[in-house]
């Protein structure tokens, strides 16, 4: 896998995750179980959105399996986010070989280079972690859609 594909994989997987969480928020907000829950004033930041999703999803979906999924999705997404931001928002330059990459970071007004010894592999592993969260989201969603279809029948 090349460098550009690895970064595109991270960005695409993350975009799916954010859109899924946003869709879930829109779907769950109107439920009676969520009437007492008020969203943060600004749901612009991902941390606020996924925290609000955790709260409303926990109010609606109350089984142990649901709570395990909600905790997994919330915890892993918030753990991954800083690394995803680093990969998605900072420029890379070639390091010392095919797999070495250097990331140019600006911290507190100073520029520094951060080396990724196995850059493409590290970035691919990040995409895989996001994919696992997305798979859990899809499984969670599918389980509830099946339950809803059963209730509608």
Describe this protein's structure.
This protein has 153 residues and is mostly helical. It has one domain (3-152). It is 66% helix and 11% strand. The protein has 4 helices and 3 strands. It has helices spanning 3-28, 46-60, 64-89, 119-152, and strands at residues 92-94, 101-107, 110-116. The protein has a 3-stranded antiparallel sheet. Strand 1 (92-94) and strand 2 form a beta hairpin. The longest helix is centred in the C-terminal third of the chain and has 34 residues, at 119-152. It is elongated. The mean pLDDT is 87.
List the keywords.
single chain, about 150 residues, mainly alpha, three-stranded antiparallel β-sheet, 4 helices, elongated
Question: Secondary-structure map with pairings?
Answer:
Blueprint: H1 3-28, H2 46-60, H3 64-89, E1 92-94, E2 101-107, E3 110-116, H4 119-152
Antiparallel strand pairs: 1-2, 2-3
Quick structural summary:
With 153 residues, the chain is mainly alpha-helical. The chain contains four helices and three strands, in the order αααβββα.
**Percent of sequence in beta strands:** 5-15%
Q: Reading side by side through the largest sheet, how are the strands ordered?
A: 1-2-3
**End-to-end C-alpha gap:** 46 Å
> What summary fits the major beta sheet?
3 strands, antiparallel
Q: Tell me the overall shape.
A: elongated
CA radius of gyration: 18 Å
Number of helices: 4
Global structural class: mainly alpha
Summed up, the domain count is 1
Averaging pLDDT over every residue, what do you get?
A: 87
Count the beta strands: 3
Oligomer: single chain
Give helix and strand order, one letter per element, not per position.
HHHEEEH
């Amino acid at each position: 896998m090349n460098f550009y594909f690895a970064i595109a994989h991270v960005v695409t997987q993350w975009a799916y995750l954010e859109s899924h969480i946003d869709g879930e928020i829109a779907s769950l907000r109107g439920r009676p179980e969520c009437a007492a829950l008020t969203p943060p004033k600004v749901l612009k930041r991902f941390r606020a959105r996924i925290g609000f999703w955790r709260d409303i999803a926990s109010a609606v979906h109350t089984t142990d399996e649901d709570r395990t999924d909600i905790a997994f999705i919330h915890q892993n997404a918030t753990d991954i986010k800083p690394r995803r931001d680093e990969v998605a928002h900072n420029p890379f330059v070639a390091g010392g070989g095919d797999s070495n990459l250097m990331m140019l970071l600006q911290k507190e007004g100073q520029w520094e280079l951060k080396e990724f010894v196995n850059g493409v592999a590290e970035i691919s592993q990040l995409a895989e972690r996001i994919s696992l969260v997305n798979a859990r989201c899809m499984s969670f969603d599918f389980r509830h859609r099946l339950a809803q279809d059963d209730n509608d029948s």
